[in-house]
Amino acid sequence: MAVMSYIDAVTMALREEMERDQSVFILGEDVGKKGGVFKATAGLYEQFGESRVLDTPLAESAIAGVAIGAAMVGKRPVAEMQFADFIMPAVNQIISEAAKIRYRSNNDWNCPLVIRAPYGGGIHGALYHSQSVEAIFANQPGLKIVMPSTPYDVKGLLKAAIRDDDPVLFFEHKKAYRLIKGDVPEEDYELPIGKADVKRKGEDITVITYGLCVHFALQAAEKLAKDGIEAEVVDLRTVYPLDKEAIIESASKTGKVLLVTEDNKEGSIISEVAAIIAEHCLFDLDAPIQRLAGPDVPAMPYAPTMEKYFMMNPEKVEKAMRELAEF
Amino acid sequence: MENRHEKIGLTDETVRKMYETMLLARRLDERMWLLNRSGKIPFVVSGQGQEAAQVGAAFALDRNQDYILPYYRDAAVVLAFGMTVKDLMLAAFAKAEDPNSGGRQMPGHFGQKKNRIVTGSSPVTTQVPHAVGIALAAKMDKKEYVSFVTFGEGSSNQGDFHEGANFAGVHKLPVIFLCENNQYAISVPADKQLASVKVSDRAIGYGMPGYTIDGNDPIEVYRYVQEAADRARRGEGPTLIETMMYRLTPHTSDDDDRSYREMEEVEKAKLSDPLLTFRKYVKETGVLTDEQEQQMEHAIQQIINEATDYAEQAPYPRQEQTLDFVYAEKEQGGAV
Amino acid sequence: MAIQRVTMPKLGESVTEGTITKWLVKVGDYVNKYDPIAEVLTDKVNAEIPSSFTGVIQDIIAKEDETLSVDDVICTINTEEIAEVVEKQEETVQPAAAVSTDHRARYSPAVLKLSQQNGIDLSNVKGTGKGGRITRKDIQALIDAGVQTKQQTKSQQDVVRTNGGDTIIPLDGIRQTVAANMVRTKQEVPHAWMMIEVDVTKLVQYRDSIKQPFKENEGFNITYFAFFVKAVARALKEFPEMNAMWAGDHIVRKKEINISIAVAADEKLFVPVVKQADEKSVKGIARDVNDLAKKARSGSLRQEDVTGGTFTVNNTGSFGSVQSMGIINYPQAAILQVESIVKRPVIIDGMIAVRDMVNLCLSLDHRVLDGLICGRFMNRVKELLENASEETLPVY
């Protein structure tokens, strides 16, 4: 067991999967010699060569589309979108093609593809290097969307994504890359896609979130614990399809639920979580379902004041948790 | 008439088979229109006038290993690659047994893994990057196959065409890009679609040879596609071939082409209908006798009749099958 | 003069720390603003850090090859300049509206559910939530502490004092269950009550005329009660609203008409069920009642004999009662008590006549039913009974 950063867990999972399975290959912009703009693929070009760590032309739809083609004939491509913000040109390929290939061919064809992309703000990335794009894809049956919070989860879930027989979008929080460190076992392991994880047990309130916000909630929970408030923190890990069972279980247990995302509030992942709770847990609710999210403006601005206003942080989460506990 | 097929190594038998496939595609297409107009099938998208290029190209490929990514008018291509009339008829009637999609997609959305016919969608040209990806897999795994992808001249304006062609050019991948230039993208003529004179002019930008050829001549198309396939297998990269033809029918069964083109133009084009011109060729070169032709027509009629009856009586998918195959089905009794 | 602090800069979008690989200045050196002062290595770049100030290096804090977090101080510089005024933006905090709202009577679904399940009277609970709101945790704490039960037991023990010679009878399981059900029903169900008078002279004549031959042929008695059950079952078929149950957030109208009947045996109360009473003849009902009563007395009732009831008919008349208020058999919507048949003078067409009269008393769950529908139902029962004859209520 070694302590490593979130991004090193990405690299480790990629390396191990490429060593394990010849059909796994990486393609994307700057993923080869440079090892990626964030260094997520560092060292892989040297180890596996140009043919398996492919620097592509700067054209996102082709990256996705070529990966889809290769996946359909048995390869296991891992495509990198340099920033989640730049996935937009590839949306047609992802939604019209990857998501529907199995369904439209009546199970004749399938598309075992992983698309990795760094998302999220708080890094002075402004409008086009800070976005959370998961909600765009989260009403597309056929896709799976994984958003891990810890290095341990990164490794187990990225391996599961690569081995999955359907397309998986794997969004990594770029602020977490070097900020979040944790134990990662050296051995091979997979974590189940579609399963949430209770990162902290508690009886008083439930916080349901994912990605970097999990850490904000955990930090806030420790502070609240000093005042005798025990918060349960549920890490969705897979934001589509959602783990309804885990959501219902925790919401019913405490009756007070705070949902947190860094994304814009309306139509976000947590809106769907709120709907699930409303449908299933009415008679167990002890307070209105609370959503804490970014403001409904197009994206995160550059100026530090505005970025701070938009960006989620432990203080905002703590305040919302405290208010809910006191309700 | 000069025998041109012997020069490029085509036997009479193969040429007769090519004509038969064209004729089969045409008669099937005509039947689809009848079924539509009698209210039995909701939709037809037609390939009439494009059979020569489709058959010429398909016969030039290795139909035992190459992958094809057809677009919606390519019934003749998929017939040449092993899909049956019955399969296509089942798709037209949206029946459970349809191998393309199990009754999920509209007709013309071909796909059949066992024959390496890659499943397609309706947004145009998305299949081009897929063809490139399949070719990339061939190169990575050092396999011999090529991928063959078709699209219309209107579709050659899509970003996916340009992104895919460039990718294939950069990585010298074994892809054949075949444009079926039938002069119309629904109602908009080619001169309103293309700033360049020819689609093939675009090839140079992506580091590959580009040709514009007579799409009404299956022998000519065969020659070019065969050469492109050889190049691809030699590792020399992709080729763009633009085949010139004319769409003899409206865009689909829901389209009335009288609103945007003169019927005289259509009538004129029918004079060079490839089925007529190629029929003349096979008759005059002695590849096909009158008697053989009669037998051929009769046999085709019978195949289509049987397929129509079969498909019409075949069961629809059950309602609850709507829910199947969103993701890989978990094995029975498998762990969560 | 001012001492300024130089911090580890953030050299990349995901970078959180950096390592000084080499200092390019030493303490006492004079540096101009933007002069390089150190080489730094981060995960993403290798760069020189420029000085942010003009002045003399006062102190070098970061050691070479030491990894520091972004914003940690790496050195200080003694400057001639006036300290830069770092504009600290006042964070505008909207003061929360200081309106004290009383939320004591605003109950969440969770609180209502828990309190109902545990028979807790919310008016006695002190809330700890916002505005005095009772929270789920408040109720849970009461349940966990067993407060409710203790309070009840205590108060009752206080009231009931035993003197010498009094007998204390311990509660057996059945008595406890009956007691709990009765308490629950009486507390939870808003009972309403209604009584009608029925002239059963014809029924009495009819029954008396067949009593003897029936006994001879069938081997058991044909009771009045069977006719009452039959009449009720028939009326229930016409008024399905009565054959219903309260289910918290909805009402369930039952399809089957299964009549619960009360049978007392050895100080125990059993409530077996005549299944599908609407489909049975008077004789069939009489046989069921006879069999169920036998089973009750011999203690051989089975689970299926006592479950599935949708409406209760209670033969209170057998104890000589002429008027009573039944407690509804939970979760049914109503119970009908058949009182004693007595001969009374009544006025018919201006003349006094002696008639066989009976009172029928109905207790109803007012959440499910109201007076109008019950009145109609009772009148239908009355009509059926008053016109009872070989033709209208045949035994077979």
From TrEMBL, chain A:
Residues 4-179 form the Transketolase-like pyrimidine-binding domain. Keywords: Oxidoreductase, Thiamine pyrophosphate. The keyword Transmembrane does not apply. The keyword Oxidoreductase applies. Its cofactor is thiamine diphosphate. Pfam families: Transket_pyr, Transketolase_C. GO terms for molecular function: oxidoreductase activity. Transmembrane segments: none annotated. CDD domains: TPP_PYR_E1-PDHc-beta_like. This is Alpha-ketoacid dehydrogenase subunit beta.
UniProtKB/TrEMBL annotation, chain B:
Its EC number is 1.2.4.4. It comes from the Bacteria. The keyword Lipid biosynthesis does not apply. It is an enzyme of class 1 (oxidoreductase). Its cofactor is thiamine diphosphate. GO terms for biological process: branched-chain amino acid catabolic process. It catalyses: N(6)-[(R)-lipoyl]-L-lysyl-[protein] + 3-methyl-2-oxobutanoate + H(+) = N(6)-[(R)-S(8)-2-methylpropanoyldihydrolipoyl]-L-lysyl-[protein] + CO2. One of its GO terms (molecular function) is branched-chain 2-oxo acid dehydrogenase activity. Keywords: Oxidoreductase, Thiamine pyrophosphate. Residues 19-318 form the Dehydrogenase E1 component domain. SUPFAM superfamilies: Thiamin diphosphate-binding fold (THDP-binding). Belongs to the BCKDHA family. The branched-chain alpha-keto dehydrogenase complex catalyzes the overall conversion of alpha-keto acids to acyl-CoA and CO(2). It contains multiple copies of three enzymatic components: branched-chain alpha-keto acid decarboxylase (E1), lipoamide acyltransferase (E2) and lipoamide dehydrogenase (E3). This is 2-oxoisovalerate dehydrogenase subunit alpha. It comes from Domibacillus epiphyticus.
From TrEMBL, chain C:
It catalyses: N(6)-[(R)-dihydrolipoyl]-L-lysyl-[protein] + acetyl-CoA = N(6)-[(R)-S(8)-acetyldihydrolipoyl]-L-lysyl-[protein] + CoA. It is an enzyme of class 2 (transferase). Residues 3-78 form the Lipoyl-binding domain. PROSITE patterns: BIOTINYL_LIPOYL, PSBD. One of its GO terms (cellular component) is cytoplasm. Keywords: Acyltransferase, Lipoyl, Repeat, Transferase. Its cofactor is (R)-lipoate. Its EC number is 2.3.1.-. Residues 106-143 form the Peripheral subunit-binding (PSBD) domain. InterPro entries: 2-oxoacid_DH_actylTfrase, 2-oxoacid_DH_E2_comp, Biotin_lipoyl, CAT-like_dom_sf, E3-bd_dom_sf, PSBD, Single_hybrid_motif. GO terms for molecular function: dihydrolipoyllysine-residue acetyltransferase activity; lipoic acid binding. PANTHER family: DIHYDROLIPOAMIDE ACETYLTRANSFERASE COMPONENT OF PYRUVATE DEHYDROGENASE COMPLEX, LIPOAMIDE ACYLTRANSFERASE COMPONENT OF BRANCHED-CHAIN ALPHA-KETO ACID DEHYDROGENASE COMPLEX, MITOCHONDRIAL. Belongs to the 2-oxoacid dehydrogenase family. This is Dihydrolipoamide acetyltransferase component of pyruvate dehydrogenase complex. It comes from Domibacillus epiphyticus.
